[in-house]
Amino acid sequence: MVSKKLKEQFQQKPFNDNIEQKNKLSQLIATRKNREEKRIKSITEEKRREQVIKWTSFYRRNWNLYAAHRLKLHLHPFQHIMIYFIGVSQVWWGIASKQIYCLGQYEV
Predict the structure, then answer these.
(1) Which of 8, 13, 58, 90 is spaced 20 to 30 Å from 39 by Cα?
(2) Mean of the per-residue pLDDT values for the chain?
(3) Residues of 32-65 as b/e, b for ≥16 C-beta within 10 angstroms?
(4) How distant is the alpha carbon of residue 20 from its chain centre?
(5) pLDDT tens-digit series, residues 59-81
(6) Which of 77, 107, 76, 79 is nearest to 92 (CA)?
(7) What is the distance between the alpha carbons of residues 95 and 85, in angstroms, rounded to a whole number?
(8) Could you give the maximum distance between any two Cα atoms of the chain, in Å?
(9) Cβ atoms within 10 A of the Cβ of 26, count?
(10) Does 58 score more than 80 pLDDT?
(11) In this predicted structure, what is the pLDDT of residue 13?
């Protein structure tokens, strides 16, 4: 004999009548949408090239930020200023004291 519980499990109610199934389905759809939105989307070669040009231009203008972010160097505020001026100047003189080496003249 088949038990009553087994009969109930196999005799499913129509989808429209079962509210729990609707909720589960809507939750499943919502989680799938969230995953799709968070998924890393591939970009076209042209878009990638544009992004590379933008970041290259940014870091060429801001050597101090390149050193801090990409090279992960810990820079003091005066070092940020000095590196920035090295990047934007044609001729730069750096005079330092208190155990910091004199950087001398650099031509870019």
Answers:
(1) 58
(2) 78
(3) eeeeeeeeeeeeeeeeeeeeeeeeeeebeebbbb
(4) 38
(5) 999 999 999 999 999 888 888 99
(6) 107
(7) 13
(8) 97
(9) 10
(10) yes
(11) 56
> Hey, what amino acid is at 100?
I
pLDDT for the residue 69: 92
Distance of alpha carbon 96 from alpha carbon 94, whole angstroms: 6
Rounded distance, CA 71 to CA 60, Å?
14
**Which tokens sit at 8?**
């109930």
pTM, two decimals, is: 0.50
Is the Cβ–Cβ distance between 84 and 62 less than 8 Å? yes
Residue whose structure tokens are 């001026």: 85
Token pair 């005079």 is found at: 95
